[in-house]
Write a structure and sequence with these properties.
Elements: E1 5-9, H1 13-25, E2 29-33, H2 36-45, E3 50-54, H3 62-72, E4 77-82, H4 87-95, E5 100-103, H5 108-138, H6 149-161, E6 168-171, H7 178-187, E7 196-200, H8 206-214, E8 215-216, E9 228-229, H9 231-234, E10 239-243, H10 250-262, E11 264-265, E12 274-275, E13 279-284, H11 288-293, H12 299-305, E14 308-311, H13 322-333, E15 343-344, H14 346-354, H15 360-374, E16 379-380, H16 407-421, H17 426-433, H18 437-447
Parallel strand pairs: 1-2, 1-3, 3-4, 4-5, 6-13, 6-14, 7-10, 10-13, 15-16
Antiparallel strand pairs: 8-9, 11-12
Helix pairs in contact: 2-3, 5-13, 13-15, 16-17, 17-18
Length: about 450
Amino acid sequence: MKGGTILIVDDESIAVENLTHILTREGYATASAASGEEAVALLDNREFDLVLTDLRMKDLDGLAVLAECKRLWPDTEVVVMTGHATVSTAVEAMRLGACHYLTKPYSLAEVRATVAEAMVKRRLRQEVARLSRQVADLGSGPLIIGESPAIQALRDNIHHIAPTDSTVLILGETGTGKELVARAIHEASPRGGGRFLAINCGAFNEDLLANELFGHEKGAFSGASTLKKGLLEVAGEGTLFLDEIGEMSLTMQVRLLRVLQERRFFRVGGTQEIDVSARILAATNKDLKTEVDHGMFRADLYYRLNVITLRVPPLSERRQDIPLLAGYFIAKYAPAMGKTVSGVSSEALRHLMAYDYPGNIRELENIVQRAVIMAKGEKLEPADLPQDLRGEAPALVKHEGPELITLEELERRHIEAVLAHEGGNKTKAAEILGIDRVSLWRKVKRYGLGE
C-alpha cells in the first residue's frame, strides 16, 4: 500500500470512476468532486496530499481549483488534466503551482507514474519541513536527526543507557556520528554538567597517547618542565570519549585495561596513584571481534569495553533521514555564507536520495555545504551537486591507452589527484574523499605521496 490521499475533480463521471478504480488499486485513499465548486468545498474542510483536477468544467475551472487549493494548502500537489492542451494553459498551470500537466487521453502507466512522482515530491517536502520542529524539540543538546526506525531505536537506547555509569562501546563506519552519540549519552546523564573530553586514539603514537591520557610529572622526561594533568584526570566527574580505540597499540591496551578495572592510574614518571572518576565511552569503525581473533586487539579489553554496545547505522540504512539532514545542513551553512538557500529542489533531492554515501553523514554535510556555496537561487539544484553524485564521473584520474591497474594503484592516483586539486590541503582533501584526516595521513604515508 502506497498510502496518501487524493482528490479527483472532474465533471465527467466515467473519468472519476476510472481514476478512482486505478488509484484505489494502487493503494491510495480517494475522494471525488463533480465540479470545481464541490472541490473547493471539500478543500475548505480538509487537506489532501494530491489533487487531480480536470481543466475545463462548467462553473469553476481547473485553474481556479488549483489557485484555491494552493491558497488553502500550499504543500498539496496538484496535477491538471485536460483534453484541450495548449502551451498557454500549461504555462499558467505551472505558474500557479501545478506539479504536472496530464493530457487526455492518458494511459494507465502515465497516471501511475505522474501520481507516484507527485507523492514523492509531497513526502520529501514534508520531511524537510519536520526539521525545524525537531530542532525545537531537541533544544540545545546534540542533534541526532532522523525519523527512521534505526535512529529512533538509537535514541531510545541512549535514553536508557545514559543514566547508568556503564562503559559503552559505540560501533559505526567513519562519518556516522559516533562522537555525537557519545555527547548525547553524556548530556543525558547525571554527568551532563561536567566536562566532555574526546581524544582520537589513532592520531597519536604510543608515547604521545600515554602523555595525553595520563599526563606526566615534572622532570619525567626531557622537556617536561612542568606537571601536566592527563585527560583521565582533567575529565573529573565528566565523560572521556576514546574515539577509534581500535587503533590503540597492544601496550596501551594493557594500560587502559588496568584503568577500567582498578579505576586508578599513574602519571608518566609518577609514583602516586590517581583515582579515575570519569565515565569512559569508546568508539571504533573496526570489527573488534575480528581484531581479537587476529591478535590485533586484546580479548580481555574487548570484553571489558563491550558491556553495552551501540551501533550507529550508516546513512545507506537510513535513507529516509536524508531530507531532514540536508535541511539541517542548509540551515546551518546558508546564513553563515550569506545565502538565501532554504530548501532542495525535488530533482536535486532525488540525486541526494540515490547516492550511497561511503563517507556517511560527514560526506552528506560536505556535499550540502559545497552545494550551498554553488547555489544561485533559493533551492539547491542538481547543477549545484558534485558530478559523481549526479552520475557524471569526474575526470580526476586520467591515463592513456587500455591500461589495467590494481584498485590500490587507482586509489593512490585518485588521492594524489584530489590533493593536487586542493593544493595539498589534507583537511579539504579528506573531506572530499569522505575519510578522516588521520586515515588520509596513513594513506599518504603508505603511498609515499609526501608530507
